[in-house]
Amino acid sequence: DSGVTQTPKHLITATGQRVTLRCSPRSGDLSVYWYQQSLDQGLQFLIQYYNGEERAKGNILERFSAQQFPDLHSELNLSSLELGDSALYFCASSGGTSGEQFFGPGTRLTVL
Amino acid sequence: QKEVEQDPGPLSVPEGAIVSLNCTYSNSAFQYFMWYRQYSRKGPELLMYTYSSGNKEDGRFTAQVDKSSKYISLFIRDSQPSDSATYLCASGDSNYQLIWGAGTKLIIKP
Fold first, then answer.
1. For B63-89, what is each residue's pLDDT tens digit?
2. Angle at the Cα of A100 (from A53 to A62), degrees rounded to 5?
């Protein structure tokens, strides 16, 4: 158990809808990262937050947004969903100066 | 050219064999290097962390970094069927952004 939690585990929704994925980092970790992993594909970095502020952006679509709250949990919002958004979405957290990231179990999103 | 290159495999070896997994990287600024193991549809799990060059050993696993050739390796001794997974390498610089390899799928045959 990495100490990173994600909810929900599974999400099934329809095209055009909006969903929110939630992540709670390890105790004390200030950084949260979001990744997308499509079937049998590598990890695609979406966005990073550090102590409530956006730190880095990767290949995140404009339909996607994220935020990190004062209690350091983070939410990833996906809107106007398309079939191609079906994927595993992982959250990772990091706290020290070593760069290690610890991953949550993921949220499996299915768009029908 | 991707900043971190990794052969996607699959790599299939018999149980008990020594496994060698490799990545190359292009950015000289990378200072730390990691190997993650990912079972199917699960979250990646940190296996090994190495800062700068050198070797690190943990049980059956050994990580090597050769900064002169920009080559990173993970060796698994006495491989077990439970080692069957996808292995991801990642490298990062002082900005703490990790660049990921595509992952190598490893299959250990009983």
1. 999 999 999 999 999 999 999 999 999
2. 40
